[in-house]
Amino acid sequence: MKCFIGIDLGSTTTKSVVMDETGKPLGHGITNSRSNYDTAALVAKTEALISARLVLLRKALERDAQLTLAIDAILEGLERRFRLAQFMVQLGNLERLCSEKVQENQARHGESDLQGALDDTFTNLKVELAKLFDPGASRKSDFFRDLAGSVYMEVAETQADAHKVNQDTLINIYDKSIIEVENIPPQVDMSETFLTALDDLLNAGEIGPEDYAEVQRTLKAVLAIELEETYVVGTGYGRARLPFPKEHIRSEILCHGLGAHLMYPNTRTVLDIGGQDTKGIQVDENGIVVNFQMNDRCAAGCGRYLGYIADEMQLGLHELGPMAMKSTKQVTINSTCTVFAGAELRDRLSLGEKREDIMAGLHRAIILRAMSILSRSGGVDNELTFTGGVAKNEAAVKELRKLVEDNYGDLKINIDPDSIFTGALGAAEFARRAVEA
Amino acid sequence: MSTKTATPTAVESQKDSSMLMQKRMINSNYDALTSAPETGRKVCSTFVPGNLNELIQCFGMINNLPETNAIQNAMRQQSGGMIQTAERQGHSEDVCTYVKADIGMMSKGNIAPNGKPMPNPDMLLLSYTGCFTFMKWFELLRQEYKCPTVMLQVPYQGDGEITQNMRDFVVKQLKEEVIPTMEQVSGVKFDIDRLRENMRRSAQAEDDLVWVLESAKNKPSPIDAYFGAIYYLGPMFTAFRGTQEAVDYYKVLRKEIEERIAKSQGPITPEGEIQKERYRLVVEGPPNWTNFREFWKMFYEEGAVVVASTYTKVGGVYDQGFRHDADNPLESLADYCLGCYTNRNLPKRVELLEQYVNEYEADGLLINSIKSCNSFSAGQLMMMQEIEKRTGAPGAFVETDLVDPRYFSAANVKNRLESYFQMIEQRRQGRMIATAS
Amino acid sequence: MITAGIDLGTGAVKAVLFKHENGKTEWLGKRNHRIRQRDPLELCAQAYDQLLAEHGLSRDDVTYCATTGEGENIDFRTGHFYSMTTHARGAIYLDPDTTSVLDMGALHGRAVKTDSMGKVLNYRMTSQCASGSGQFLENISRYLGIAQDEIGPLSKEADDPEVVSSICAVLAETDVINMVSRGISAPNILKGIHLSMAGRLAKLLRVIKATDGVCLCTGGLALDSGMIDALNESLDKMKLKVEARAHEDSPYAGAIGAALWGAYRHQKLQQQEALAQAS
Amino acid sequence: MSTAEIIKRCEELYEDTHFTAAREWKAADPSRRVIGYMPVYVPREIMHAANMLSLGILGGGDKLEVIHGDAYYQSYICRIPRSTIELGKSGRLDFVDGMLFPSICDVIRNLSGMWKLMFPSSYVRYFDVPQNYKDDVGGNYYVAELQELREGLEKLSGNKITDEALRNSIAIYNINRALIRELYDLRAEMPHNVSSNDVYLLNRAGMVLPVEEHNEILREYMDKAAQQDNPVRDNCRIIINGSFCEQPPLNLIRSVEMAGCYIVDDDYMLINRWLLNEVPVDGDPLENLAKAFLHESADSAAKYCDREEDVGQYLLSTVRERRAEGVIFAAPSFCDPALLERPMLTERMKEHEIPHISFKYAENSGQMQPIREQAGTFADSIKLWS
Ligand SMILES: Nc1ncnc2c1ncn2[C@@H]1O[C@H](COP(=O)(O)OP(=O)(O)O)[C@@H](O)[C@H]1O
Ligand SMILES: Nc1ncnc2c1ncn2[C@@H]1O[C@H](COP(=O)(O)OP(=O)(O)O)[C@@H](O)[C@H]1O
Ligand code: SF4
Ligand code: SF4
Ligand code: SF4
Question: What is the CATH number that goes with domain C2-82+252-278?
């Protein structure tokens, strides 16, 4: 079947959407942006195609399968197993690269039992990380880097002590290797991995033999469908570096506008808070951008700000919002300079403010800046759609709702669970239209 | 604020005679300045907006404009170093870079753009029109040169009109402060008939200049009324208003443009003629000088032509009917000073822009907001909103600086312009679809 | 008499002990704790007590406990001196040839011109924007997978440093990522960052008119030899006849200065008291 | 009331961005009008004579959340116009009948036009002052400007502003100015009893209260403060310069004092001390106001200095009078007048070997640590070595 692909190469994450001929999004893929843009785009696209297969599988199952278990449960299990397999391949890469680093290190410093420490670290790591893919487990992030990283730090600390090696060396070896791991293009053979994942499901007893046979048959049929990459459009902050000809590139403003329109045809205003920019976009009834404003050259108060805060507090990005939601008192934070965020945080803590209150203050500060940009772009007088990574953060959303209500009245605010893909969705639609026209 | 005059980077391939003429004129003024120690002529430093060239000429003095020097230095990539020299001496990074470029140039031996030492001025004529920075600028220069300094305070048109009290005040200062100082410095007695003569010539040249600027109402426009027009304004805004040379120059220029219109030709750019006019824009705000050509290129590459700009009115808003009036010489000089673009209040500036967008049938308004210049920049975001509201044409906003290379971020500006042009294009298509269906 | 100096920085807590006897000054001991995610005030107390314990002393044995850096809120201090005052004094102690001091900390850079007694003659801090701070370098090297003590040696290997143009640290981070994607080598990136930081710091020196002599670098970044090299290059390029140096105990300069000024202040106060009693 | 109670009242007024006190004043009598004005100087006597309250608008401080205001300004413009717009857009100034924008810089000048566009029904005037100090040149122009203002206000209030009323108002403001001078003298004499925090807040109260009430508060505070016996701290004496428009957060003023500096003079709210001497009450009142402006007014960067040798003299004489040991140039970020003037002033300080430092702030600066550090080092160096 014909597929249209949009790729949004953002400053922190790279997103991709696969769309069918009718304009329906089939699949979404996301990865963290990295120094190799081609790989980032490729990974995102591959992920989107994987998710498209899952969507097709669901449809096929819904259409004609007779199953004892709920489709949701089966698909969830299948995807989980699939992710685990993917993850383990990367972990294997990481281990191999780390070992190489240890060898080099040994050659230079002859340090005692570095290899032993590393081996034990990975033995532990595999156990710990596999738990993340247990049924019902929650993961702090979607990206290998974050997941492996945080657990590695913990495990390495104890192993370093146990083997009497320098903890910093161990961490440094990881830091070096992770970059290389990320820049290895996707290696997993999709069909094979899916089928193995299904086998694993069977072996683990999470699915019965009758269902297994039924699903396997459908899965094979779905995997046999050819997804033809008819047209690809790139957008986002890094779009100029994508290996695409100029007519395959669209400004991210247009893509966000169109993407938001596709999700919510009645929206007239779009707020996008990404990693290092904040945009206020006004669109007309056809999703055509009529006005936009973005932050100036200072990146204060953008998504990366939250990243710094999360680092500072050793939390995952997912955890910031929930923490801020616990706040009971308003703390005013004025500087939204991203780099000083940590300093401000420490300042406040030393003044005796509570973490959750400061956190709420920080979220409010970000949204205040966004409100100015919205106001600059012409304000809000109809449905507002909030997109970009920060829209995933409930505390940010809460502040936005409050401030929009205070300033513009009780308006409808749309937040799609897939809001981070808005730009990619717009790009995919542009791809579709390019062929249609 | 001032205008670019010499043309190191100008249209080498298309040496129109007007181009050569204006280049010769500008150079001749620098030669007159640097040879002043030999010729014994007196040098009067003053500013472009509200410059009293006709009067200065009456006393045989040479007109030196520090803004123009800063621009010349910027185009030769010299200004960055000069600004840093001034900042090192304790000048704040926040203030107007013209001032710092001027002060830096002084510290670096005050070498004129023609490579010869610039003589110290014999008087500073602080015709204080449209900007408070001027006042402090000349206070700073006075400290250095210790020469007679005369303040001509030009009241601001707070209510958007010139009152009799304002006019009387300026005339009185001309009579009691400016003219006596000029007589004393130059040793020449004031001759009002000579002034009338100069003003008569001014008015002639002004007629032709207005015709040239308004030629942009043609489609395609034969001129670029922002980047290209900078060259056309050189003589009028600097030391030539009121001279026969200026009268001749504008005649020649007008001829050339008449020919272009007859042939339906677009504007000339450093890389030749614009083949297809795709976007017609009105621009508010001074240009950036350090990357003048790079900036211009972002426009002509996309077929964007500026059809009207306010910057070309800083040295006099002639297209709104004002002419130097030989019959009322001093009152007319007062009205000239009082009427300069940045001496008009914000509502008047908005009205002017509105008129331009409508009369020149522009696709939109672009604001190049200059970090240095609060006189221009404070309030521009509101101007943009007003224009959008009144005309329905979309606005866009880019931020650069006059002569400080540190504040020109090409990638950033290009990103915005690209998005803007794509948006105009998309809106057009949208409109076409809407009208078709 | 025993005096203590505690420097509470944004990145680390440094504590030192000094003994003053018969006009002689002896440096007893030092401790340096990275703050990481801990409570800085508690960490100060901890570092202080551990240091005292190492020398068989208790808080009561200390005549003057002086804080510096962000230590105004430490409750057990006797007095507080501000960073630039203490770094100047500490620098003179570590290197008597010093005529100016650059304190290169995690967030701020400070330049101080001093006389031979540690008296501050002129000073300046970097402004609010955080680009080109130690923190930034730390983040980038982490991204590049480079350990702190490798930064210096790597930076020295650079052959064609790539300058970071962004004024903002966040945008600069993306700049760097772009560089990696363009295949710029780590040494060239690091050296580029070093150079842009060095440029700023050298400018500070010029602003305070420290145009010749020895500039002792203090603070954590002083241990980064690549930074010192870049600084000397920048100074050279600006035609300043300043020689930038570091001392292995450079990170302690603030704490040392605090302990020494503490002693000075104590004596001054005693003299005043004696005078008051005499009259 | 004790001094603490007086200051508490002043602090409440300062923090009240809804201007409740002024609202109540106006509500008490339907014929009353309120005119807002921005720093530096406007002739409040004329408004007073028309039975109007002149309300000083000094931005939003560090508590006001600025949303719409930010939408109108690029990042390289100071904060005060944004927060002022925020005050207007958020309805906090809806009881204000007119606004005066004195000629101080391009930002405020342009703001006057923005205000016209934003609030078309309000009385908005850009108040131009002379930069030529000759009676028959700048003076004539200024008297005519004052007259225009007078007529505008007459129309707005429906009250005739008689010469008699003007003379009366001048007399009342003469008292106010005398009291403020006394307050400054008192602080310079006993900075341990009269803290800069207090002086600042007392000054601020004068922005929002009727002058008669302000006079009472000042009197009462000074009588009480002089009798206090606070411990004298080992601080140095400094002067703040450059803060005449956008105000620093109160925390900054406190931080400077905490870091070891007694502020013995400053240029906060210059309007309270703009006219240096008593304005004569007999004769033509407008001419008297004009003459006082031309010949006997405070110096500030917003004014043209017509003689080169006079540049900085005002500051130097304040240093001498107040026995100050140093000057802190504290200007708002992006403040053109203050920052352009600064190199000329520091030059003078150097010539006279007066220690000085400079820094910038914003009305919502949150991080005081760099400020404390710079002021603290300054104080350290004065204390340890001078
Ligand atoms: N799950 C999440 N929870 C909270 N915030 C998130 C989450 N995922 C991403 N973010 C925020 O979104 C930002 C990235 O947004 P994105 O729109 O992907 O930016 P860009 O397009 O510039 O890469 C991150 O900096 C982070 O602050
Ligand atoms: N060995 C080292 N090599 C390079 N940089 C270092 C080293 N040790 C510390 N640093 C850097 O020094 C900074 C901390 O310096 P410090 O003077 O303690 O800062 P502060 O006084 O602001 O806390 C950190 O940013 C860290 O990156
Ligand atoms: S501020 Fe603007 S108008 Fe004034 S001198 Fe600078 S550029 Fe010219
Ligand atoms: S470092 Fe902070 S203040 Fe500076 S530009 Fe970046 S975000 Fe803005
Ligand atoms: S702070 Fe300075 S620049 Fe800003 S409005 Fe006031 S005087 Fe003008």
Answer: 3.30.420.40
User: Over 90: is that where the pLDDT of B233 sits?
Assistant: yes
Enumerate the domain spans of chain A: 1-68+208-264+420-437, 81-182, 266-415
* Long-range contacts at A345-352 (CB < 8 A, ≥ 24 apart): A345/A309, A345/A312, A345/A313, A346/C10, A346/C40, A347/D367, A347/D369, A349/C39, A350/C40, A350/C41, A350/C70, A350/C73
- Restricting to A residues 276-305, those with a Cβ less than 8 Å away from any Cβ of D are 296-298
- Tally the domains of chain B: 1
Q: What is the CATH number of domain A1-68+208-264+420-437?
A: 3.30.420.40
Q: Domain range for residue B109?
A: 17-436
To the nearest 10°, the Cα dihedral for D176, D177, D178, D184?
A: 110
Residue C140 identity (one-letter amino acid): I
Q: How many helices (H) and strands (E) does chain A have?
A: 14, 9
Least confident of A176-190, A289-303, B191-205: A289-303
**Quick one: fold of A266-415?**
Nucleotidyltransferase; domain 5 (3.30.420)
Taking the CA of A362 as reference, the closest ligand is 1
Shortest distance between the Cα of B99 and any Cα of chain D, in A, equals 9
Among left, alpha and beta (phi > 0; psi -120 to 50; other), residue B221 is beta
Q: Does B263 touch chain D (CB under 8 A)?
A: no
Chain A CB contacts of C128 under 8 Å are 335, 337, 340
- What are A198-242's pLDDT values in tens digits? 998 899 888 888 889 989 999 999 999 999 999 999 998 777 777
Out of D65, D69, D367, the one facing A347 most closely (by C-beta) is D367
**Domains in chain D: ranges and CATH:** 20-162 (3.40.50.11890)
Q: Do B88 and C206 lie within an 8 Å CB cutoff?
A: yes
The mean of the pLDDT values for chain D is 94
Domain ranges for chain C:
2-82+252-278, 96-246
Q: Do domains A1-68+208-264+420-437 and A266-415 have the same CATH topology?
A: yes
Q: Which two tokens mark D299?
A: 């110096």
Give dist(CA A426, CA A267) in Å, integer. Answer: 14
Helices A144-163 and A71-109 sit at what angle, rounded to 10 degrees? Answer: 50
> Domain C96-246 class?
alpha beta
Q: How far is CA B150 from the centre of its chain?
A: 23
- Would the pTM count as exceeding 0.90? no
Complex ipTM value: 0.83
Cα angle vertex D199, ends D196, D201, to 5°? 105
Q: Identify the residue with better confidence: A23 or C37.
A: A23
Task: Indicate the pLDDT class of residue A102, thresholds 50, 70 and 90.
Answer: confident
